[in-house]
Design goal:
The protein is an alpha+beta fold. The chain has helices at residues 3-20, 23-29, 47-57, 146-149, and strands at 34-37, 43-45, 69-79, 86-97, 105-119, 122-135. It has a 6-stranded mixed beta sheet with strand order 2-1-6-5-4-3, covered by helices on one side. The radius of gyration is 15 Å and the shape is globular.
Length: 154
């Protein structure tokens, strides 16, 4: 498998793990990295902190054990210079939710900006910047979105 394909798999695996509510495995993806939410200055660094953050902020429905979401990641562009051990990407995300008693709805869309590092033969997230552009009703998905969405002041 090429470096490009391994990096693309990481991008898609993130979406799969969030939708599955598997925040432990999600944390493993960020053992060497962080998630940065724009336009705020809110950042979560390291695997255990990422797991804890998602467990505290994302509503998981007991009937399914998941957030009842579907993350679609499209328009993936990856820059992976040969032999440098670093890569970057940007992509578009769209999140739908299928919460009980609610019609399927678009709850958020925006862009991911990612940086990756290669150690031995394995790629890792170094940083994921999440830049939401459009919002629907997040009340049934995010328990406390305030620190994630607050713009930087001053």
């Amino acid at each position: 498998m090429t470096h490009y394909n391994r990096i693309a798999n990481l991008i898609y695996l993130y979406a799969h793990l969030v939708d599955a509510g598997d925040f432990e495995a999600l944390g493993v993806l960020f053992e060497k990295g962080s998630i940065f939410y724009m336009p705020s200055t809110f950042q979560v660094k390291g695997g255990r902190n990422v797991t804890d953050h998602f467990s505290r902020t994302v509503k998981v429905y007991p009937e399914t054990g998941t957030p009842c979401t579907l993350h679609q990641v499209t328009n993936v562009s990856i820059e992976c210079p040969d032999g440098e051990g670093v890569a970057s990407s940007n992509s578009v995300f769209t999140v739908y939710q299928f919460a009980e008693g609610q019609p399927m709805q678009l709850i958020c869309a925006g862009r991911y900006y990612d940086r990756f590092i290669l150690e031995n033969t394995t790629w890792y997230f170094q940083e994921r910047s999440v830049e939401p552009h459009y919002f629907g009703d997040l009340s049934k998905h995010i328990l406390d979105s305030e620190p994630l969405l607050r713009p930087v002041v001053g």
